[in-house]
Amino acid sequence: MASLVIAEHENGTLKDATAKTVTAAAQVSTPVHVLVAGLECSGAAKYAAKLAGVEKVLVADDGRYANMLAEAMEGLILSLAPGYDAILAPATTNGKNYLPRVAAKLDVPQVSEILKVVSPDTFERPIYAGNAIATVQAPDGKKVITVRTTAFKAAEAAGSAQIQNIDGAADPGLSQFVGEELSKSERPELTSAKIIISGGRGMQSGENFKLLEQLADKLRAAVGASRAAVDAGFVPNDYQVGQTGKVVAPELYIAIGISGAIQHLAGMKDSKVIVAINKDDDAPIFQIADYGLVADLFQAIPELQAELTKVGY
Amino acid sequence: MKVIVPVKRVIDFNVKVRVKTDGSGVDLANVKMSMNPFDEIAVEEAVRLKEKGTVTEIIAVSIGPQQAGETIRTALAIGADRGILVKADGPIEPLAVAKILKGICEAEQPGLVILGKQAIDDDSNQTGQMLAALLGWPQGTFAHKLEMKDGRADVEREIDGGLQTVEVKLPAVITTDLRLNEPRYASLPNIMKAKKKPVAEKTPADYGVDVTPRLKVLKVVEPAKRQGGVKFKTVGELVRKLKEIGAI
Hints:
heterodimer; A: 313 residues; 27% helix; B: alpha/beta; globular
């Protein structure tokens, strides 16, 4: 029949997570339609219309969807569900929030965070913090799927789909947006950055994270952190890379003062190149790092700054 | 106000899991089992609400084998008042769990259900949201802070970009994130007291729920392993290597 991808977007721009989910959707059921729900989201809809493989973009431009609250999204997606045999969302905090409601109402099991589409009803997904990979087959009927976006390539901007405005569904009025505190940063986002520099408990304080930020600015990298660093209050929660934080797979991941707890490794071990700097020669992070440096980070970071300058950064 | 806290018995988070060589799953024989860490945070939050006087009774629910009764005892030792053990063997999917919990909520009429955002075994992150949908309730997922008001709750949530606050009408489902609180250790006297607290035993059939899994697990394998690589002595060598391979 067709698959429906729920778009992730912000301030009129489509997030990369959407383009990656489109790639997964095209392997499950074609054609692919994209739902862009939000307020003043026509800009994002235009981006979505360009993605290769997308046949149609549905736009629900309505204040009810301004913050993609789960209760309102449930009704909207359910109103469209009869036309699709697969519904997919990126496994972002948004997708994880609203999609299980849809699955429950459709009385189908959700397949969470797929890494691979083996066949249109069979998927690989991580369990036990990525320490095991399960291949699961969904039953007949609608497929409801969240997609681990680091595992799929983004669909290219090569298409020109039709854009269609749709009406929203009734809002149950159960919840209300109060406010948000978003981290403001000129640096790239963790989930789409090519280079990530992460700090752990070894950084010792939030103040010391400035050292990593300077390094990140040199390399146009994003800054991440281990759970230990977030729990210690060095940096906010949205910096956290790991099983329960963000899952990332950049070209280069530089772990500084991170010992390498399995929960952290689960969030970054698919990075192309991993560099670890740690003073403990036995730190588990070295068992998965391509390149290691056993050194005191407070000595190594200034040296790294200097060496990067030498090679033109 | 009553609170229901569902707690799951899972492999202890410190245990390194081993995939069975026949690809049928993860080896659970003779492995230490504990309460799902996110559920521990849920129990703690409920107990704090009771200490503040917002909550009058905390009911811990577990769905699983007879040993899941131990997980309920852990919740009772932290401060839950009574337990409900729904006995079922084998893996039970989030949707089936949500359906059983719906039945319990209809019988108990709680003002809140607080549970972990995900279990660290199947990492599904579905049960709370599914329960909320089946009941037609709002949800505050990935809670970082919970503030109770008259008939409502403000939930500060951990989201990809930072923090978001939503107001939900009660009754509601709350799922916990890591930094909602730090669970206390149960004291020895409380562990002793917990042994005397009542735990009712039920079956999925009591709630009219079929728990047969609907996703078929075809195989479970270990992920591709990464190999440790080269260790350098100086920062200069490291930077030259990164430059050489085009990583920077």
